[in-house]
Structure formats: C-alpha cells, structure tokens
Amino acid sequence: MLMSAPQAESYQGPLTCTMHMLSCDKIETGINCSSMSITKNYQNILALAFAVKELDENSNFLPNISLGLYFLNSYGLGRMTFKATLSVLSAQQKLVPNFNCDNRQKFIAVIGGRLSETSAQIGSILNIYKTPQLTYGSFSLAKDDKKQFPSIYQMVPDDTYQYRGVVQLLHHFRWTWIGLLAMDDDMGNQFLQRITPLLSENSICFAFIYKITKVTYIKDMSDFMLNQAEHYSILMDKKVNLHKFFRKTLFNNTVGESIQFDQNGELVTVFDVTNWVTFSNGSFARVKIGRLDPQALSENELTLEDDQIVWHRSFNQIATFPMFPPGFPLAAFGIKDYFFLVLPISVCNDPCQPGFSKSKKEGKKFCCYDCTPCPEGMISENKDMDACVKCPDHRFPSESHQECLLKVPSYLSYKETIGIIFVILAVSFSLVTSLVLGTFMKYKNTPIVKANNRSLTYILLLSLLLCFLSSLMFIGKPGKVTCLLRQITFSLIICVALSSVLAKTITVILAFMATKPGSHMRRWVGKKLAYSIVLSGSLIHAVICVVWVCISPPFPQMNMHSQPREIILECNEGSAMMFYSVLGYLGFLASVSFTVAFLARKLPGSFNEAKFITFSMLVFCSVWFSFIPTYLSSKGKSMVAVEIFSILSSAAGLLVCIFSPKCYILLLRPEMNIREQIIRIM
C-alpha cells in the first residue's frame, strides 16, 4: 500500500521517500497512550513496518528507491490529530508550519487513521498541500465531500457495497426482522443514516436500535490558513504526479486480485463472504462461503454456497415431514431421516399462507402485519403476498383462494337433460302439427275447412310447424350462422303466424258484417284482403330484420363474467335496440289480434273462430309478456332455455286453442261438418 514518489528530473541516484502514519497506538513517540491503546491498530503498524522492510530489502520491487516511515499519534482526539498533522509540516520540536529546515526527507504521502473523522481532520490541512492521504478505514464520501477531500484515497471499498451485500444476505435467508447495533458516535450515526433507508427500500425492518456508548471528546477544530505553499514547488510537483499515479494504479496483489481506484478515489475490489465456525472449546475457524462482486450484474452480485454454511448450534431447529405418517418407508424414496434441519428464522410474525394477503397493523412496523383472507374472486398463490390478485378472465379462484382453475365452457347442449326434453317437445309438436295439417288437407273440401279461409289455415299450420323446428336452432354450441339466423328466423316465422291469425280474425268479422242486408262489406270479403294482411305484416317485420342485420348483426361470444366458474358460449344480439324492436313489433301484432278477436268473440255461428283465437292470443300474450322479465333475469343456458320454452309454449297455445275444436269435429263429430248444418245455424 506504499507508493514512492517519481524522481525529479534534477535528481540523480537513489530517492528516499518518507510516509507518515497517524494513528492512536501505543508506540515510542514520547506520549503515553495508556488505556486508549488498541491492539488492532498496533498490529496494523507492525504489518506496515514489515511491508516497508520487505520492499527496501528486495531490490526487485523498487530499484534505486528507499521508503521510510514516521509514526505520529492522534490519540483519537481532534486537537491532537491537528497537532500531529501540523508537526509534519514543521521543524522538529517546533509547531511552525511551512518552516522546516532540518535534514529530514520531505514526506510525499500520509496514511491516515481508521476512523473517518481522523481522516477528515488530516485531510482538511493536507488538501492545502495536495498531499495524498491513504485511508485503511471506512471513509464514506458524499458528493460534496469528494470535492472537499480530493486527495483522499480509500484502501478499503465504500461501505455502501457492504450494506448492499448485507441486504442481499438478509433476503437470501428471508430475514426481515432484525436489530441494529451501532457505536454512539458520528460513525455509528452515519451507519444508521445509510442502512435504515436501504433496509426499508428492501422490505426489511428493525425491531430495535441499540447504540453502544464510548468516551468521546469533542474539540474545536483549529483553522489554519497556510499560504506559503509556493516554497515547496518541487515537492508539490511530485505530489501532483503522485495523484496521477494513484488514479492510474492497476495491479494484481499476491493472491491475484486486481487492485485499482475508481474516479472517486475508492478502491475497487470483491468481498469475501465468510462463515465463522465456532467449536465447543471456544476456538473458531474462518470459512469462505461466497463472494460479493459490486461490479457484477445485480442478479450475480452475491454468490453463496449454502451447503458450506455451518450454523451455530443454538440456531438449529428441528422439523419433521408433516405429509408422511409415522412408520412411512422414507428410505424407499431416498429419504434417510424422518427429521431435517431448517434455517434460522428472523421475522416479526409467521408468513401469510397462500389464500391470504398482508394487512398493516396500526402503529406497528411494516414487517409486522395481519393475514387477511382473499376476498371473493381473488387469490394469492405465494406466501406473504402484499395483495390478492384477480384470476384471468378464463379462470376462477379455488375454494381455498390459492390457485386459479380453468372455467368450463357452458351452453345448452343436446346431451343435457333439459336439451333432450326440448328436442323431444319440439319434434313432438312438429309431428302433431304435421298430422293436423294432413288432416285439414284430407278434409279440405269439407265446410268446416272451407269456412275460415282454407289457405290461411295452411299458412298458419306451416308457420307453427316451422316455429317448433326453429327452436332447435337455439340448442347446441353457438356459431356465426346459428347466431345470425336463429332470432331472425324465429321472429319472421312467428310474425307470419300472427299475421295469419289477424287475417283470419278480420275475415270472420267481415264475413258476418257482409251478411247484413245492404252492407257494402261484401267487396272486402275474399282471399285478397287476407293475403294482403299477411304479406304487409310480414314485410314490415322483414324490413326491421334487414335493418338489424345491416346495423349490428348478432354474433357468437364468450361471456366470462356472468358466471363465476363458467365461460358462457352465447349469441350476442348485436343491437339490443333492434332486438327489442323485433319483440315489440311481435307484441304489437299479438295485441291487435287479441283485441280484434275479443271484439268478435260473440258473433253467432258454430264455426266462429273468434272465441278460440281470443283464448289462443291470451295464452300467447301471457307467455311473451312474462318472457321479458324472466329473460332479463336469467344468465347463460337458463336464458336460452327460457326463450325455447316461450317459443314452444306460445306456438303450442296457438295450435291447441285454434285447431283442437276443428279436429274434434273433423275426426269425432263428422255429422256436424255438413253444409245444411251450417245453413241451419246461420
């Protein structure tokens, strides 16, 4: 650690360089250190003297250069440090700075003490002379201090690296609840000021701070303004060159480690992580278990060999394998013992298990917390999570809130019980409708079939048949085609059926009005009016459907939010306004048909359909008016089931109420299906 000054151009022959060491050690200086002697410091002085002796005796190290030493004592007192520093700049036995006429060699560097305040006190004077000072103790330089002490070179790395290493060690062992011990002096205060925010930033808190008191003496600093530096121009040049030499220093020590200073005059090095292994007899051994490289990447700064660590016997904790019952053959699975050792624990409280999150305790450190169960819809997979998190949309929380499980796709399938029931009903009603249609076609020339517009009857029965079959489009996995067609197809078919019912009702009314003497309604009675009503009613509905498809057509979607554990595969109706416009138009047709049929229910005649239409439309309106609130309050496959039920029940109501009386006469009372009977009644 000793550096020689470069030779001046005017000097020939060997150069003798003197280095001063200021420290508080009990050496022969004429002053008694008494009880303030520190063995550690004395060992440092012996090591330095030995190193200088080796350098001087071996010409291979510094040829033609001899190194000298001169020790001064500071006693750990500020005034004594200043006095010793000024004595270096003065003649022997006289404290007169810049006046030195004895035959001693001019010194070129100083090795300061181990304390940062000692180095600062020495540097406040030596900086005037640009004299390099090497420190082998901790001396943390702030930004302003680096400008104030440009001549200080640290032979030990900045404490910041060690603090970072300590934090990484604490994280490695998961220790978050620690205590801090510090000297009750400036160095201890600096340590606490630097380490406490670093711990907080890394989620480590301290249970206590204990300051160890020592006797300190606070003395006033003497301000000496030395303005005679120009008398030492040659020596100053040497010192300037020495500064340049220090800044460019780069060599390997005896163990092969690279030694150099950075731009701040701090030593760049790698730290060893050592394990002090103690034995029962009180002896101990130092074992290297890792290293800390401040220049490495953040994830590679600290490397440890955990299997090399030997914990003190008071730290050992015994634990068992709770998942194995007593007597379980562990050896068969390569487990030699039923017991194992765990690392020492240093936490404020037990960690929060998965399914819980941390919640702050009022008035406590942030490392002390309560564990709160995750709320509905959220989980925590790891221990000590700060907050629970939501599962992705396609997953849902488990019962324990420890993991996210996959949601199951849900739609009304043909394989489900309710799906099978709807298929059976739809097919059954379709067969019944086909039989009714076949019956009417068989008896197409009979009076009862011809009395109420045979063509409208066929149109109505075909509409009901297609209506039953259209309900099957709502069962199964929704696709682009089925979503686009099912609502439009069903609504168009039911619109034709309602228009046919309305046309039949109006035909009945006009027929009875035309029988009155002098009535002008005869010209309105006929197929043209009936067809016009069916065509116009269906055409209006078709226009609404075309607008719906053009503006915002229905499409399939995956609804992940309606049910907590299911992904609902459904058809999005696109424009809700158009969907309810279609339903509103159907409701309008049904209301008009019901009103007209209700007014015509008391018309005379055995074959008057108005009373049957009135009852059928009452059933139809009741079903669809109850459908809307039920549909809006349902979710998933239940919503689809409600619509299918409404389709089947409303169509079945029309089929049964309108056609069952006629089928009764056609099949069971054929004597009533004669023209004379009709004429007699009328």
Describe the structure.
The chain is α/β, with parallel strands linked by helices and 682 residues long. The chain contains 16 helices and 24 strands. The chain has helices spanning 39-57, 78-88, 116-126, 143-148, 159-172, 186-201, 233-247, 417-442, 447-450, 454-470, 480-514, 527-551, 576-599, 610-632, 637-667, 675-681, and strands spanning 15-23, 65-73, 107-111, 133-135, 152-154, 177-183, 205-212, 250-252, 258-261, 267-268, 271-278, 284-292, 302-304, 317-320, 339-342, 356-360, 369-373, 378-379, 389-390, 395-397, 404-406, 408-410, 555-559, 566-572. A five-stranded parallel beta sheet has the order 2-1-3-4-5, sandwiched between helices. Strands 8-9-10 form a three-stranded antiparallel beta sheet, with no helix packed on it. Strands 11-12-13 form a three-stranded antiparallel beta sheet, covered by helices on one side. Strand 3, helix 3 and strand 4 form a beta-alpha-beta unit. The longest helix has 35 residues, at 480-514. The protein is rod-shaped, with a radius of gyration of 51 Å.
Class based on secondary structure composition and strand pairing: alpha/beta
Strand order of the largest sheet: 2-1-3-4-5
The description of the largest β-sheet is: 5 strands, parallel
Using the alpha-carbon principal axes, give the shape: rod-shaped
The radius of gyration over CA amounts to 51 Å
Instruction: Report the portion of residues in β strands.
Output: 15-25%
Helix run count = 16
Q: Any low-confidence stretches, pLDDT <50, length ≥5?
A: 1-19, 23-38, 215-236
Helix content: 40-55%
DSSP summary, beta strand count: 24
The separation of the N and C termini measures 134 Å
Q: What's the mean pLDDT score? A: 77
